[in-house]
Amino acid sequence: MPDGVIGGEIIVAFVNPPAKLHTVATINPPRFIDNGTLSMSQKPHLTFDLDEPGVNKGYLVVPTGTDREALPLPVLSLNKGEGPRLLITAGIHGDEFEGPIVALRLIDWLIEAQTCGRVLIAPMLNPTALEAWSRRSPVDRLDLNRVFPGRPNGSISERTASAVSELLLPTVDMVFDLHSFGPKFDCPPAATTHPIGDADLMRKTLNMAAAFKFPVTLAWDGPTQGMFDTLVQSQGKVFVCAELGSGTVSADALAVAEAGVRNAIIELGLVEGKTEYPTPRQMKTNLTLESLTSDQLTSPARGIFEPRCSVLDELSEGDLVGLLHPLDPWSSKAIEIRASTTSIVCSLRTGMQVDVNDGLVYLARPLNL
Amino acid sequence: MPDGVIGGEIIVAFVNPPAKLHTVATINPPRFIDNGTLSMSQKPHLTFDLDEPGVNKGYLVVPTGTDREALPLPVLSLNKGEGPRLLITAGIHGDEFEGPIVALRLIDWLIEAQTCGRVLIAPMLNPTALEAWSRRSPVDRLDLNRVFPGRPNGSISERTASAVSELLLPTVDMVFDLHSFGPKFDCPPAATTHPIGDADLMRKTLNMAAAFKFPVTLAWDGPTQGMFDTLVQSQGKVFVCAELGSGTVSADALAVAEAGVRNAIIELGLVEGKTEYPTPRQMKTNLTLESLTSDQLTSPARGIFEPRCSVLDELSEGDLVGLLHPLDPWSSKAIEIRASTTSIVCSLRTGMQVDVNDGLVYLARPLNL
């Protein structure tokens, strides 16, 4: 990039590996003692009545804590009476902008097209993180999607999770949470879920995910404690995590992402219309995959990762995924990262500096339903 | 992105607008008084003899200063005797990994294929910045490509620039400096130059740039003080800045980038071969463009930028480039960013949070040679 002409300096600090991160998060952030009762101003509240018919805009107010003042989160209510009740959330992670932009783009369409039921849209659930282009809020360094159901007297992320859990979630039957892989990965748009113990809810969830008609519908395994997903599913409700893409947030990527969410809304019956497979360039595919914890290949050392395959490539065991160059390229040979099993490349780290244990690639395979 | 599963937390701080950055850079970094003479250990040096024939690997050692110890920069010399003398540099900016990876990929090919002349490859000129995934070195916060020709007793970036200027540049006739637009922009691979006062050198430079056969050959206007480009051109030598892409660093993007640099090396006669237009997906074009300072549209306010066009789109005056959403989407309407003139979209900000005066888009138009 040319110097001085385009603004916006990024200062980046890595806190790795993830295990460490988690330790930091549980030891360092400010903690607040619940005092048993909360005054009105300390309670989360909505600035408007969700039961009002029609279109209503307002805020979910996260109350003041010792770490920062009250935080108003924009919420839009589209109440067309009886029917499915859907909550669309976005911006939980501050380096994933596809969700907030797509959530905003849905509004005019829904105002025009919604025929029944209720849709709540909360397009920016983590504004302090979004302002910092950072996954976590710089205020408490916690991952908002690790602290659900939150704590009413906790830090800003915990208070936010608590406000959403108490005031938005009870009013809906289903949640679409809009994420992306952020700027450090390459991946196709995917509607995803973690495996769910309740087989009936798992089936319903996968069916709903498939309704996005994204190139990939994915069930992936991994730790789920403190996730919004887990809370919603524990209440027997369908939760689809839409991973809307990665890398640069382009007009093309946004159009595909928006089309996918519209498909799911149409499938729910909230809008009458015809669903179509959105066709991202070079991704005319529709796969249902599963990815296990063992499918995640992590970096064996510090170095510069060079991807040598592409997302959606089919690999055999031993095929080259990428190279890990030593930081001093004359000190030793590059380490070859190879596929552990016959698989499909589901997401791939961008070519950049990585630390030991950083994720490099998610492999996946067809899920037999 | 899923939580806790893939490591690598990014903490990002914005220092905007660019004008401010420059103020910070000139006031805050440590400054060192030149003491007139330098002892041997304080002098930059090469660990090997560039005049040795054949393939030689070693280091350009940037001497110890008060801000950090000596920094060895890897350098490879491919000396096949008489012929063009080319320096390939990469990794001047630490959030642009296409260059370092492509520079490493060229080595095996050149060892096999080079028939004459000399090639010097310095794949990682700014290792402390590359380790931090940050444009600037975190040690002195200076932009290495703003401090040429450097100062032998300055901060780490200034000492690096000085070492390159003194020990590498005098041994070559031409420089290819490998950059990219980094993770915050979308742009096609482009071989670029700033306008040069010397018409003959400008013609030679544009011809060399065109030899990459990238989708775009670009002459762009802008401040050039302290740039490596300016120093090299002031010595009457050809300097091509290859902007190898943007966003995620994928295998496809790397293949195109490498093919372009190989084309230019073949055109120089260092390697015998046939050049071909690399064909990035959806970018089967070969344009020679110019972009003026007035073609750079910057953000009129803080907000979330939503791109509404794509790179290489042709725009008429007034066409929509993107929307700037207020941070509170209920507070006011989105600001429409529109093309100032009939133009071609050369590079475009990714959808993300931007500050006032941040660059949003570079427009360009055909350059009449």
Main sheet makeup of chain A: 15 strands, mixed
Count of helical regions of chain A: 7
The H/E string of chain A reads EHEEEEHEHHEEEHEHEHEEEEEEEEE
Assembly type: homodimer
What is the CA-atom radius of gyration of chain A, in angstroms? 21 Å
Low-confidence stretches of chain A: 1-38
Question: How far apart are the termini of chain A?
Answer: 47 Å
Question: Would you write up a description of this structure?
Answer:
Chain A has 369 residues and is an alpha+beta fold. Chain A is built from seven helices and 20 strands. In chain A, the strands form two sheets. The first copy, chain A, has a 15-stranded mixed sheet that branches. Chain A has a four-stranded antiparallel sheet with strand order 17-16-14-19, with no helix packed on it. In chain A, helix 2 (98-113) crosses helix 7 (251-268). Chain A is globular. The N and C termini of chain A lie far apart (47 Å). Mean pLDDT of chain A is 87; it is low at 1-38. At the A-B interface, strand 1, helix 1, strand 3, helix 2 and helix 3 of A face strand 1, helix 1, strand 3, helix 2 and helix 3 of B. Strand 1 of chain A pairs antiparallel with strand 1 (9-15) of chain B, so a sheet runs across the interface.
